[in-house]
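The step that takes the researchers longest sounds almost clerical: writing a folded protein down as plain text. Below is the pair of lines this work produces for a single protein:

——
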Amino acid sequence: FRQQEENHIMENIKEEIKKTEKIAVSSEQKQAEATVKTQKTIPPTPEQQKQFEAFFKDLEINYEKDKETGLYIIDNYVVNFSNIEKHRKFMQNNNITEDDLFKYIQEIKGNADFEGTKLTSLGNLKEIGGNANFENSPITDLGNLEKIGGNANFRHSPITSLCNLEKIGGDAEFEFSRITSLGKLKVIGGDA
């Protein structure tokens, strides 16, 4: 009889833990959704357009504008030791920030390496077609990002929530990351 009573108590405890876990996960998801800042899709002004396109040309970034939204689609976004000084000098001389720029980029077709950036939010960026490296970047907000086609590296990143991100096509590196909420993530195509 005592064994049955202990089993019953253990089952009740397990059920309470499951309920608590569900509430915690639901609460985290709601909090992540509430903190997502949905940027308005307004195309850049003619002056901004001139600055951004000069920036793309200066850093040899191929670009096009989406006909519907007026936002930019670029091939790659990589800030590294070979172009970081040129990148920062252009931004400083033209009084623009990467956060300003990313309000008007909706897609990166290839790879995105944010390690050397000063960017804090991905703004209206919805898709990165290739790999995404957030390691040691100052980015805290993934903005409207929904898809990463390749691998995603979040090591040593201040990002805590994946917010609107639904799919990572390749591997996802979370070791030494601060991720506490997977947000809307449904698919990781590789290892995690």
Q: What stands out?
A: The helical segments are 2-35, 46-58, 84-93, 98-102. Residues 32-39 have pLDDT under 50 and may be disordered. The longest helix spans residues 2-35.
